[in-house]
Amino acid sequence: MTRHTHPSRAAPQNAASPPAEIVALWQQASFLQSAPADAILSLAQNATLHTYSREEVIFLEGEPTAGLFLVATGVVKICHHSRDGREHILHFIQRGDTFNDVSVLDGGPNPATAVAHTDVTLWRVTRENLQAVVVRNPALAWAMIENLARRARLLVATVQDLAMRNVRGRLARLLLEQAEASERGATPTPLTQEDIAHHLGTVREVIGRTLRSLAADGLIAIERQQIVVLDRERLREEAEI
């Protein structure tokens, strides 16, 4: 993995009149769904554009806060590494999603490492600029609190998933989520068996055996290294949804 110190190849935004498509992208962010238009415009005016190549580190866990990021293109991997170097993938962040919200709000160090899973372009707002925007637009603070609450619910669900489901159940749930994302028109995050293992808290060999087991039972098919869901209801039973 390439160590990288942010910011990378930054291009300043024209604070006077950000393009309409950039403002529209900020409007897609989950925490801005209920934010006023002038707050969104202020964020867009204070953002700088950064580009990263695949597998390039955006920021490291434990470093001073890198700011708030919004994905414009590509996929970002949020992960944690144990002392022995083992990786655990926490989230994959795609276009229109933000990350590093906690760090930019409490001023503490980055809580996890962010890596470009594909080539990415990102909009970044520093903690200082975000504070200035919030002072001018108090409604934005409540929108961000609601977003943190949603993230907390997701974290609780993730902990329950790890504690209460075996690998087969967790894998079934992930495959269903990928299939449903495709149906909604979203592009599923490209995952190798190694990625899946890191995401589900296991090792690649276990994922390989579990995929073969699900295929043997007729729940999925593996065609040209692509996983096809064949029996969604039985997969839901495995995932206990």
Task: Write up what this structure looks like.
With 241 residues, the chain is α+β, with helices and mostly antiparallel strands. The protein is built from nine helices and eleven strands. The chain has two domains: 11-154, Sandwich (Jelly Rolls), CATH 2.60.120; 165-239, Winged helix-like DNA-binding domain superfamily/Winged helix DNA-binding domain (Arc Repressor Mutant, subunit A), CATH 1.10.10. The chain has helices at residues 20-28, 37-46, 101-106, 127-136, 139-164, 167-183, 193-200, 204-216, 232-239, and strands at residues 11-12, 48-52, 57-59, 68-73, 76-81, 87-93, 98-99, 113-116, 120-125, 220-223, 226-229. The strands form three sheets. It has a five-stranded antiparallel beta sheet with strand order 1-2-9-4-7. The longest helix has 26 residues, at 139-164.
